Design the sequence.
């Protein structure tokens, strides 16, 4: 399912117009993105949680040349599946 299919499903199930459903989905994703950008954890009980994992800088190698290089510290978003979602998928 992609974003457009999600909007269409919300439109049909909730009886919204397409622009209203699009606004709901946009608000939902923007809110999650903003929270992660601030370093907050987002938890949707029974479904999943999103959080930001921080990595320290480290010495690496360029795979093409083999030259040593310094990799900067970084933050990456992670998704953790909830128990209920695991159970529904595995049925």
Sequence:
């Amino acid at each position: 399912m992609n974003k457009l299919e999600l909007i269409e499903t919300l439109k049909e199930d909730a009886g919204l117009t397409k622009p209203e459903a699009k606004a709901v989905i946009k608000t939902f994703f923007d809110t999650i993105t903003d929270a992660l950008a601030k370093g907050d954890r987002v938890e949707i009980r029974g479904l999943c949680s999103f959080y930001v994992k921080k990595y320290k800088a480290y010495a690496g190698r360029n795979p093409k040349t083999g030259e040593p290089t310094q990799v900067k510290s970084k933050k990456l978003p992670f998704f953790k599946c909830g128990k209920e979602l695991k159970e529904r998928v595995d049925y």
